């Protein structure tokens, strides 16, 4: 990702509007009622007294209602590259004690080596300009027996489905595939000795196509589709709905990584 891409990411995440739109459709229409956030946190092995760093914490919504997990941490740092997003996190978790907030770039983590028992980076590694540098930094600040948790999407999910619907209009999907379920293990193995993938089974059953249109317009990878008039978009979506329901495949999951790779594989 170059300078222009970095600027695009900064613009996208300087406030929470687009992100909230994307979170909302998952909250409303996901068929797996556990919820992706709850599923992710269910994999965290956070024991009493552990030090935890989250990179790219977004709105902080995954920590809502997780006071028991928060209180286990001797120190919990929620960080984001965007100051605007970090302010939203503080609002989301206002009144929750035991959390520190910091602006942090994963490529230059400002903490000493062997500091954290757990590092978390969900749905953000595909934005990192120098991914290996970021992963190397994560491995550096982790303790020898620490674990790195990182959720991401696959290459056969919502974006690809929507792109297929509008293929006849000459639009191509430009999904960021810098770190996906399909290639994430290869990237992680350059810095970590042990990498395990977990898949989250889910889909969307959308009953209000207006919500789906809002979602599409919020996607940076669908920038071309913003040129499609809303009426046309709703017509296309309606064509593929059955009994008033648009079924949309999802492909999400996470990796858990630990141990230092025996050699530099970059």
Commentary on this structure:
- By secondary structure, this protein is of the alpha/beta class.
- The chain has one domain: 3-Layer(aba) Sandwich (Rossmann fold), CATH 3.40.50.
- It has a seven-stranded mixed sheet with strand order 3-2-1-4-5-9-6. A two-stranded antiparallel ribbon has the order 7-8.
- The longest helix is centred in the first third of the chain and has 13 residues.
- The relative contact order is 0.16.
Features:
266 residues, alpha/beta, Rossmann fold, seven-stranded mixed beta sheet, 10 helices, 34% helix, 23% strand, globular, disordered N terminus
Oligomeric grouping of the chains: single chain
Q: Supply the CATH architecture.
A: 3-Layer(aba) Sandwich
Summarize the helix and strand pattern as letters. HHHEHEHEEHEHHEEHHEE
CA-CA gap between termini: 17 Å
Per CATH, what is the topology? Rossmann fold
Low-confidence stretches: 1-15
Q: What proportion of the residues is helical, as a percent range?
A: 25-40%
Number of domains: 1
Number of helices: 10
DSSP, total strands? 9
Major sheet: size, sense and barrel closure? Answer: 7 strands, mixed
Helix vs. strand class: alpha/beta
Average pLDDT, rounded to a whole number, is 90
| Spatial sequence of strands, sheet with the most strands | 3-2-1-4-5-9-6
- Over the alpha carbons, how many angstroms does the gyration radius reach? 19 Å
CATH homology group: Vaccinia Virus protein VP39
- Assign an overall shape: globular
């Amino acid at each position: 990702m170059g300078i222009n891409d970095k600027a695009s990411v900064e613009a996208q995440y300087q406030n929470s509007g687009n992100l909230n739109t994307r979170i909302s459709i998952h909250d409303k229409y996901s068929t797996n009622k556990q919820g992706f956030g709850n599923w992710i946190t269910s994999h965290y092995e956070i024991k009493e007294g552990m030090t935890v760093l989250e990179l790219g914490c977004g709105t902080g919504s995954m920590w809502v209602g997780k006071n028991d997990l928060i209180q286990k941490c001797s120190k919990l740092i929620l960080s984001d590259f965007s100051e605007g997003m970090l302010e939203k996190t503080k609002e989301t978790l206002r009144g929750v004690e035991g959390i520190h907030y910091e602006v942090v770039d994963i490529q230059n983590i400002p903490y000493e080596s062997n500091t954290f028992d757990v590092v978390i980076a969900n749905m953000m590694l595909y934005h990192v300009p120098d991914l290996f540098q970021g992963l190397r930094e994560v491995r550096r600040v982790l303790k020898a027996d620490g674990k790195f948790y990182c959720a991401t999407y696959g290459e056969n999910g919502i974006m690809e489905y929507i792109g297929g619907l509008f293929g006849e209009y000459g639009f191509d999907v430009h999904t960021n595939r810098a770190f996906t379920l399909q290639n994430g293990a290869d990237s992680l193995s350059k810095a970590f000795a042990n990498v395990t993938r977990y898949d989250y089974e889910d889909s969307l059953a959308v009953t209000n196509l207006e919500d789906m249109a809002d979602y599409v317009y919020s996607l940076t990878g669908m920038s071309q589709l913003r040129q499609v008039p809303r009426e046309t978009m709703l017509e296309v979506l309606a064509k593929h709905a059955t009994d008033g329901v648009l079924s949309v495949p999802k492909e999400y999951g996470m990796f858990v990584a630990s141990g230092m790779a025996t050699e530099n594989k970059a």
